[in-house]
Amino acid sequence: MSSHETETIRETVHTHYAEIARATLAGTEEATERGCCASTSGCGAVALDATTLATSIGYAATDLSTLPDGANMGLSCGNPTALASLIPGEVVLDLGSGGGFDVFLAGSRVGPMGRVIGVDMTPDMLTLARKNARTYREQTGLDNVEFRLGEIEYLPVADASVDVVISNCVINLSPDKPQVWRDIARVLKPGGRAAVSDVVLLRPLPAAVAEMIETLVGWAGCLAGAALMEDAERMVRDAGLVDLVLDRKSAYIETISGSQNALFQTIREH
Fold first, then answer.
1. Is the pLDDT of residue 240 over 70?
2. Nearest to residue 108, comparing CAs of 131, 130, 88, 80?
3. For all residues of the chain together, what is the average pLDDT?
4. In this structure, are strands 188-197 and 162-168 parallel, antiparallel, or unpaired?
5. Looking at domain 3-269, does it have CATH number 3.30.1510.10?
6. Intra-chain end-to-end CA distance of the chain, in Å
7. Which helix (H) or strand (E) is 232 found in, with range?
8. Could you tell me the pTM of the whole model?
9. What does the DSSP assignment read for 163-197?
10. Which of 18, 148, 218, 219 is deepest in the core (most CB within 10 A)?
């Protein structure tokens, strides 16, 4: 991929998610219409309720009820905080933290002696996340979360400083996924771990479908940047990470496919 193509993809993703953040901050319905594959103009014709999507992919309703308004924007495809089995006192890094959804859930799990750092490339998302953080502190009494501006390929975090890296439906958006995994390995402490929920392909998309996805939703759509499963595994191992466990979870795709979602309906037709 050329440097021009890479920058074009970054700008597309940046613009797409900045619009979501600004709409959420403004409190408009547009926020639910511009999400990833959970929503309308991103991937379909009828938006799924963010809470409905989150519970379908493994989040507990009790956890969701504690989140600040606007933290859950329906951009998740799994539950990395559950996969990570977080322990009180750990330092956690969330890649592509958005409005702080998983950061706040992780913060409650690591407790006052732990720390959660959210990194996002979009200033508007940081504004939203920091606004939500004030509510989080008021509700929980915890002051253990922070948000930093940065790209997930080059994280603004020191070497060997993090116990756990989490990420939720974000790495598929990167035009340089191998570098993302190399930087994950860089920031993890010896013995640290990563828990990632992401959209990957079990087999290549037919050419016509791949072209259609690019045309309809660009790189900001969940499927446009998805890697093949075997390629994702290779990237992880090449980065130096070991003890890899790949757990296929189909609830997200099943939920989206069962909705009135124009993109997935078209894919089924093809």
1. yes
2. 88
3. 86
4. parallel
5. no
6. 27
7. helix 229-238
8. 0.88
9. EEEEEES-GGG-S-HHHHHHHHHHHEEEEEEEEEE
10. 219
Cβ–Cβ contacts within 10 Å for residue 171, how many?
25
Q: What is the DSSP string of 6-63?
A: HHHHHHHHHHHHHHHHHHHHHT-GGGGGSSSTTSHHHH-SSPPPHHHHHHHTT--HHH
Residue 263 has a CB neighbour count (10 Å cut-off) of 22
Q: Which of 15-24, 99-108, 252-261 has the lowest mean pLDDT?
A: 252-261
Q: Kindly indicate the confidence band of residue 260, based on its pLDDT and cuts at 50, 70 and 90.
A: low
pLDDT tens for 54-78 read 998 889 999 898 899 889 988 888 9
**Other CB atoms within 10 Å distance of the CB of residue 94:** 31
pLDDT (0 to 100) of residue 21: 86
CA distance 264 to 253: 9
Give the tokens for residue 116: 């959660």
User: How far apart (Å, rounded) are the C-alpha atoms in residues 213 and 39?
Assistant: 15
Q: Above 50 in pLDDT, residue 30?
A: no
Structure tokens at 21: 């953040």
pLDDT computed for residue 208 by the predictor? 80
Burial of 247 (0-12, 13-18, 19+ CB in 10 A): exposed
DSSP 249: -
**Structural domain boundaries in the chain:** 3-269
CA atoms within 13 A on the CB side of 151: 16
Determine what percent of the chain is predicted with pLDDT higher than 90. Answer: 55
When pLDDT is averaged across residues 30-45 and rounded to a whole number, the result is 42
For residue 11 the two structure tokens come to 């700008």
- DSSP tag of 218: G
Separation in Å, CA 246 to CA 143, 223, 258: 33, 19, 24
